[in-house]
Amino acid sequence: MTGEGKVRLDSWLWAARFFKTRSLAAAAIDGGRVEVNGESAKRSKAIRIGDQVALRQGPYHHHLEVTGLAERRGPASVAATLYRETPESIAGRQAVAERLRVQNPVFYDGAGRPTKKQRRAIDRWKGKD
Known about the structure:
It contains five helices and seven strands; from the N terminus they run E-H-H-E-E-E-E-E-H-E-H-H. The chain has a five-stranded antiparallel β-sheet. A two-stranded antiparallel sheet has the order 1-4. It has a single domain (7-100), classed as Structural Genomics Hypothetical 15.5 Kd Protein In mrcA-pckA Intergenic Region, Chain A, CATH 3.10.290. The longest helix has 16 residues, at 87-102. By secondary structure, the chain is α+β, with helices and mostly antiparallel strands.
């Protein structure tokens, strides 16, 4: 935890374990998937305790309140203390997860070129052995 009262947004997202690397966090910020206090932010935006962060990761939306600051990545138990997620955000993410779970999966229908193993099986079947 830091004592000066503000941390770069990309460092905080990485320390809070929303992204594996700072560069992935920076790419998400640059891509417009992160807002701070209702406004799009730059990666160097200094966040403070009490700021509201909205984050989109794939189909999931996180709405967070910053409750702690850290510049360095620590254990997951410490990272969980850096933010508090709103109940609406949790319910929304669970609804999306349930919708994705019951949705029919997309299967590969076998179209395209055969593999080497499949081609040899076809040749054996045709008698070209």
